[in-house]
Every structure is written in C-alpha cells, then in structure tokens.
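Morning - zinc ion inputs below, output right after.
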Amino acid sequence: MCRTNKQPTTGTDIPVVSRAADAGPDKSAGPAATTPVESVLAAPAAPAVAKAQRGLRLLRVSSLLLLAAIAVILLCRCNDTKMTVPPGEPTAPGASVVRVLLTSPAARQVEISTTGAYWLKVDGQVIARSVSAMPAVAVRRRGGAWQIGSRVARGSEVLLLPARDSMVHLGGRCYRGSLRLLADADDSFLAINHVEMESYLAGVLPKELYAAWAPATYEALAVAARTFATYHCTTTGRRSQYDLGDNQASQCYGGYSAETPKSRAAVDATRGVVLSYGPRGQERIFLAQYSACCGGQVNGAYVIRSAQRIEPLEGGQVCNDCAACSRYRWPAVRVRKADIRRALAARYAAARKLTRIDRIDVVTATPYGRAVWVDVVGNGESVRVRGEDVRLALIYAGIPAAKRLNSMNCRMVDLGDSIEFTDGRGFGHGVGLCQWGAQGKALKGWTAEQILSFYYPGATLYRVN
Ligand SMILES: [Zn+2]
C-alpha cells in the first residue's frame, strides 16, 4: 500500500472542459457502441422464390460452414502476419487515455503476454497478430535492437495492442489498454501502459485505500485522483512520453489485477467528475494532492511547492478524524547531521558547499508550527531548502532513519551530532485530502461531496466527459 508522499509538482492550473450537471453518475456515459461490420438481418424473401432461395441458402450455409472450418484451421495454425482477421483497436474513440510508466528505473528485460487477440508492432509495422492469446514472451533490448522471443527487430518502440476484450500482462500483472515499450538506451527501455482514465482509476483506488474502507471514501478519492491525473495529462504529460508513474511519486496503480468491485463502483459513481476552482465560467482544474494522514491539521500546498495560493489548497483545516491512523502521532527520530549533509548534497548542488552541518534554523513555519523553509548552516555557509525537501532528500538517499520520519509535521531539536525530529504528527505531506481523515468522516456519515468540500474548500465539481 502506498498512501503517501505525492511529490510536489509545479505547473499552471488548467481550464476545465465542461460543467457537470451534478456530482452523480453519468448514466449516458457508457462504453462506446460497437459498429457492426455488416448487418446479420435480411428482409424476408417473396413466396414465389422462397423455395429456390431455401436451396441456395442451404448451399450457402454449407459453403460458409466449410469456409469457416478452413478458416478456423488456418487461424489455429497461424499466429502471425498470415492472419486475415485483425483484432479491433482496444481504446474507444474519444476516450481520455492516461499513459502510465510501469518501469522505474528503465527495464532491460520484461515478459509480456495477452489474454486474447492482439497486434504486435515495431515502429508502426505489424510483426505479429493473432485472434489467440499471446503466450508469455521475453522482450529484451540489446545493442539498439529488440529481441522479442526468437525475433529480432530494429526500431525505437514496440506496441502491444490487445483487442477490446483482451488484456496485456507485464511482470505478473494484468493491465487494460495497450502496452508500449519505448527505447531508453541501447540496452534498456520504458514500459508504458496506455489506458482509459476510468479504468486507470479503478486500478488506483485499491492501491491507495484499504479494502474495508467506506464507499464514500473511495468516491471522494476517485474524484481527487481523477483531478490529479487529468492535471498531469494536460500539463507535465504534454512534455513527456508518459503522464504518471505507478508508485507513490504520483499515484499507486496496479492495473486490472488491483481492481475490486468497490473501486469500479466508486469510479462509475463519479464518472468524469473532477475538482476545479475559479470564478464562474473560468474554473480551472488544479493539482488536487492528497496524502495518508495529516496528523491533525491540513497543510497548505505552499508547504511543499511553489504555486499560486488558491483557497482549495490553502490548508489549515482541523482534522482529527485521522486519529485512527497508527502514525497520527509517532515517536522521535534521530538522524545524524552527517547523513543529512550527504543526503542534501546528493539532491541539491548548492548543498555541496556544506562540509558539515552546525545547525538547522527554521526560517518560516505554518501558524500551527510546521517548518516551511529552513536554513541549513555549516562551515560559514548557509543553504535554504524547504523542510519537506530535507525529509525527501533523506528518503531518496536511503538513510534508514528516514523510514521512520513519517512527515515534517514535527519539531527539530539539535542534539550536537544529530537532529531529533520530535512531536511527530501524521504520515505524508498532509496537503489536500487526508485519506484516514476522509475514512473517519465517511464513518460518521459524510458523503463524498461533503468530504471533498472539507478538504478542498471553494472547489467546484465538474464533469469533463
Ligand atoms: Zn487528517
């Protein structure tokens, strides 16, 4: 489970597409209708020619059965370009698609397969297709070429397109949508799942919330997570080959394998609904961050990133409904100053001028005492960083004590060679929706809309498709 630490992301807010009538389910938004290739219904024959037509029909039926039998034999024997009946494209026209990076760091080898019909392309050229499932095949990249099972193909990307009722497997997980393998270097590549937004969310919620939690909690997070993803698709995603990762650096995602009836129900109940903010007619989607447990007071986004201050992310709400979280309060954590210096130097070039750390001064803090900016002082030098970035630097550097430093909602006490982080509260950055708090409110009878109104005050619900 990873219900914390959405990384601070900068960017401008984006306009929404259309106003939702309400926050309820969109009954009209179902799967796209399938266009029949040809009608299977015919007008009744006139009586005078009916007998002759019956004979002809019997002949036609016999011929068709023979042809069908031959086709089945051919299709069973063939699993590649000899096929004449390609599977359909997997994504409904006009659907909002999210591109999720599944490999971080880049992969050198993966195993792929499908549950049914598929196309396999290299740089747009079909190299295999079948109406049958693809068995598990190892994909490697060596010296700038792809090795796909026994095949070798040059190119920059491999695309595995399953038919609409088929899915792909990667590394033991099953995913809806298609799988794109994109060369990262001569010997490594990225695996990216292209999946419709609503299906993506059904694979996010069970990775972010406990299975037993309330439907209202799931629905509230569905809206926040959809807003978070939509924001990235239309900002940072436009400059990248993917929109989001599949871990806590963005939103945890487990594909179809992670989906549950509860997650699908929450997505359906909120289909297309996002949060927005602004004057009527000028509302914009914003980066709707959320975290595991705020520890008693919701943080403003300014605590973790630079962005225009807006009411929904201003923070300051008192939230005691997250008290059931085991990390609502947590014991003191000591970290050696030498480890802090090393972690900061690895992440920030400016910190490399520090040969030692003498002290850490809090420059600015929230009204409830959480450090926002700190000066790290040593050998006559001073480096100013966000308090949150001290914690993230320790985590990225793999400092063992950082695993117990659950948030920067704490006080720092100088112990000489080390800093003690004490009076710790909460888990994660504490901005936006507090997942444990949302669950506490749901247990008290709050609806998803009430939960969202509390954690993102002033925000409006919109339906984007
Ligand atoms: Zn809370």
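Note: The chain has three domains: 15-24+199-292+429-463, 97-198, 329-425.

O.
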